[in-house]
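FIELD: query
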Amino acid sequence: MNNKKTLFFKGLISLLLCNTLNFAHANSLNNNRVDVLNTDLKLPITMNFIDSQYYYVQVLYTKQSQANALDKIQEIQQSIQYPTAMQPFDSGYRLYIGAVKGSDLLHIKKLLRSIGYNDYLLRKANKIKPSLKLKDIVFQQFGKINSKDIILPRYKDGSLALFDQVDTHFICQSINPHATIALESEYGGILSKIDAISAIGLQYRFWLTSNRTVTRVSDNLVMKTAAQGAKYPLICTTKLDS
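FIELD: result
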């Protein structure tokens, strides 16, 4: 029995050593990026703005499919070269220009009027745009779960990248518009894989939502409320272009 275990682990180690990890800079995947904001991200409506602070301009709310919502945003992107975002809300999607500085708002409103968007809502971001530098992040692809690719953000030195609460709203979407933080069920599958355990270890808490984390303890997943101001790694899942 011990000989069989030895052969198994030797084979596993050989597999891991021979496996070429796929890395990609975020910037190469970031063309026409659409941030997908978490549903629980609160963006209060405001009538006033400050030049140095950040805002989202809500240009539309639609109850059409996500694909149709993305088509709408891509139409806007043809005329407006500013960040764009969408947010699931009440069985539909809010479509935004942002996050953008208050100093850019007058120009953005002029551009919106030029393409037929005369009505919009100004929403205040809860915090200034994250200072995370995407050029310092690489995305490691390792394996699949439920036909989706598993993506692990790392720093260039190979260590797991750590993100704060605000970063969680956009880091996975910097891969592509359909990428999301892994679901609870996906974390369960990922953290039970021997190759994943070898790659990332078990000692980490990972972002599950913008205010909850998940970790594996023995054979169970344990969810906790994120500590105020803390940073954690996360795992993204998506379908990459072949």
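FIELD: remark
The first helix runs from residue 2 to 18.
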